[in-house]
Amino acid sequence: MSAEQKLDIALRLEAVGVDVIEAGFPSSSPTDYRATQLLAQHLTSARFTSFVRAVREDVRVAVAAGGTRNHQLQVLATASDLHLRNKRGISRRAAVDEVRGTMRFATGLGVTDLSLGLEDASRGEPDLLRMLIDAALEEGATTVVVADTTGCLLPAEYADLVRQVCEWVPPEVVVSTHCHDDFGLATANTVAGVQAGASEVQVTVAGIGERAGNTAMEEFVAVAAYKGDQLGFSTSIKTEGLFDVFQAVSAAISLEPQRTKAIFGVNAFATQAGIHQAGMLRDPETYEYLEPARFGRQRQIFVGRHSGRVVLRHLLQQLDIPPEDVLLDRLYDEYIASRAGGECDELGVVRDELATRFADLRAGVTGR
Fold first, then answer.
1. pLDDT digits (tens, 9 = 90+) for 310-324
2. Residue 353 confidence class, pLDDT cut points 50, 70, 90
3. What does residue 118 show for φ and ψ, rounded to 5 degrees?
């Protein structure tokens, strides 16, 4: 993804109401450095954040790229003994000291928005987490990110962890969730984290991310929009613009999500099953809880081998063609029973084809 593509996506995210947008890791590449510059220049309402290791040079580069205005630095902390031993080869004290020193250096450069990213917090020992958090707060951190880096926790376990962190920090400090989808539980864990006291969520468009991905923005937003009253939280995200953001991301990284992916999948608001179609043709609410238009999508009905005569009757009635049984049987054999595998056509396509064949249909259906 180019820096210009990152800016385009960031502006779209800002337009739908996202509060904080990650620019990238400025020290990692010229592209991320340039993207940080562009977001600093063009975002008007959203803050942007840069990812930095607990290394002073990373902070210096991030500030050089994005300045300090509306710029949050997320300082990565090694938060489990497993990572300290097997990845870093350093002691707990060294991990705490590098966080403290890095944040002190950042504030010395004028940074006022510091976030502590607790990597592998889900496998971190409570006393280590507390040491890191206390050190960060003493150096001015305003956000603590509770990362389930390997996606290993169940919702109740993640809620317990977030609840514990919330008890350790003063109320003005933001506790943020960061969940991975290795168990397919990223959205559920994020919801559980918010119910446990988190006031910010880290999400990605369509759940893109390392390995199995992260919490999908659109999934969490849908839960907040439809179940927020029940769960005790809400969202101000303009849901109608989410699909536009998704399309921009898809174009930038050639993303093709699973067809059945919630909200953004090709089949998310489509149906081919005859029993479902019979209900939806009378009232879409019978088999549709999420409203497609609310997410910038359109409802689709497909005619395939799982469809039934009801959909054909519906089409004939729309075309003012008497839905006689003999005609229905012939159409069923041709348009439904003879289909192989997953072959199907969108309802409008079949309607147009039937309309052009009206004369033939009244005389007896011919081959397609």
1. 777 777 787 777 877
2. confident
3. -85, 90
Q: What is the DSSP string of 301-346?
A: EEEETT--HHHHHHHHHHTT----HHHHHHHHIIIIIT--TT-EEE
* Residue among 24, 47, 7 at smallest CA distance from 142: 47
pLDDT over threshold 80, residue 244: yes
Q: Please list, in sequence order, all residues whose beta carbon lies within 8 angstroms of the beta carbon of residue 352, skipping any fewer than 6 positions away.
A: none
- The order of strands in the sheet holding 344-346 is 270-271, 300-304, 344-346
Work out whether strand 200-202 and strand 344-346 pair parallel, antiparallel, or are unpaired.
unpaired
Bridge pairing between strands 71-78 and 47-53: parallel
Domains annotated for the chain, with CATH where assigned, are 3-253 (3.20.20.70), 270-363 (no CATH)
- The neighbouring-strand residues paired with 148 are 179
Distance CA 111, CA 113 (A): 6
3-state secondary structure of 178: strand
pLDDT in tens, 14-33: 999 999 999 999 999 999 99
Q: Residue 165: what are its φ and ψ, rounded to 5°?
A: -65, -40
Q: For residues 342 and 219, which has the higher predicted lDDT (pLDDT)?
A: 219
* DSSP summary character for residue 73: E
- Coil, strand or helix: which one is 263? coil
Chain centroid to CA 46: how far? 18
The answer to whether 242 and 16 have CB atoms below 8 angstroms apart is yes
Question: If you average pLDDT over residues 254-258, what whole number do you get?
Answer: 92
Side-chain half-sphere exposure of 183, counting CA atoms within 13 A: 15
Q: What is the mean pLDDT of residues 286-296?
A: 91
